[in-house]
Amino acid sequence: MERAPLGDAADSILAARAADGDLRAFEVLVRRHGPLMRAYATRILGSNSDSDDVVQETFITAWERLPELQDPAATKAWLMRITSRKAIDRIRARKQDQPLGEWDAPAPESESPHQRAEAASQRERLTRALGTLSEAQRQCWTLREIGGHSYAEIAEELDLPPSTVRGLLARARQKLMQEMEEWR
Amino acid sequence: MTVTANFECELATELESVVRGVPGVNTLYPTAPLVARIVGAIVSGFTQREAASDLVTITMGEAGLNVFAAVRVVGSEPATEVCRLVFDSIATVLAAHSPVPIDTIKVTVASIG
Amino acid sequence: MAMTSRHDDDADNDLLEQLSEIMDRGESPTDAFLNRAPENRIAFDALTRFRAMAKNILDDDVASEPERDDSWVTGILSNIHREARAGRSIPVSHPSPKADLSLTEGAVRGLIRSAGDAVAGTFIGHCRLEGDVATPGSPVTVNVEASMFWGERMPQTAQQLREAITTSLLHHTELNIVAVNVTITDVHLRRNPKDEDRSAPNG
Question: This protein's superkingdom (chain C) (predicted)?
Fold first, then answer.
């Protein structure tokens, strides 16, 4: 048997090597998880305009903090967590001049039912349904359902009272169900 | 002062090509950031200006010239042997060209293979 | 559907929240609960579909992304501070008092990884040099973690790794290595079957 390509190695091995300074191992992690992190950042941000920057910041932070990573097998979840934090930092910076009230404002009604009916895939339908949520609702929902954060974690990340998070999530879920169920 | 700066600059460029020519040396790493940290320890009065090449760093201290190079070593020759060869090559050039005494020549192997 | 009329909003929210919390705990609602009212089951089914969709949405997003050039990877790698992992300075001897020669600990760890990876079917993970590496001659123990290819025999692989690492360290460094300890922490499979596997003779 010949020397195996590093791409065959598990995250735990790659993360341990990168923590020891192996840039090649880190590159494999970047290629393996970068696209997913970009998709996650795009979902949290609501557009992909800043998602490349978020991914870059995430990996730079990850490289610096890798030696502190306790469980290298949980590398992906750890990277996703840094991604959401960086994305939220962006949103916070963006929102600095706006009152919080606006943040939960309903999204503009931009699409007619006819346009919506043309959406074929489940993914497109869900994306459109998410588009009808307020930004705050969408962020809470994304962190909860895609990121797997607890209510308490979301409250901490978004700097909101847990009761507000609970309310935003409940409204998000109900709205999504209404939007999606119309397709059945 | 200007004369010294020019001299360092030319010397750094020459040393860079000499180090690159040592068998087993694959890459020269920039050393400037590390040097910036030890600059404080160098007594002022001489120029502390970094040479134009940031790959081989030359600074003037109280006891003479300080040279620093960081390299990547590849091949079957022992990394320690290549490291000593880099030192010897730098020392030979300095002995031939430098009007000032040599304090230290620091060679770091920052990567092997 | 049954849950969309306005006056029911609060009740719907309560139901969704209740169900979500049960599902967040990784549990399923009881049959008794689901059979209590038709909207209970409708809501549960919808939430279940939703969760499955949400779980897959990032993968679907990735799959629908157009192929990108490599600049995002190089952009990240060029912003990484490699020197941060140099570690300790391991002296290299020289008769001249002017010489200040060393290998970085990071370089030696790289050497160990490369020696270990050259043993068929293994990857080195974490690697530690225990001992006073800065003092010439002082005893140093190497502890490495490794992943081996599925199906290889563990004691033999560990022995091969020890030998490869020891040989390489003796060749390239002046460290006084007293032991190389190998711990197999992972087993891996080949992720991408090679082309030659498909075009093998007699295949």
Answer: Bacteria
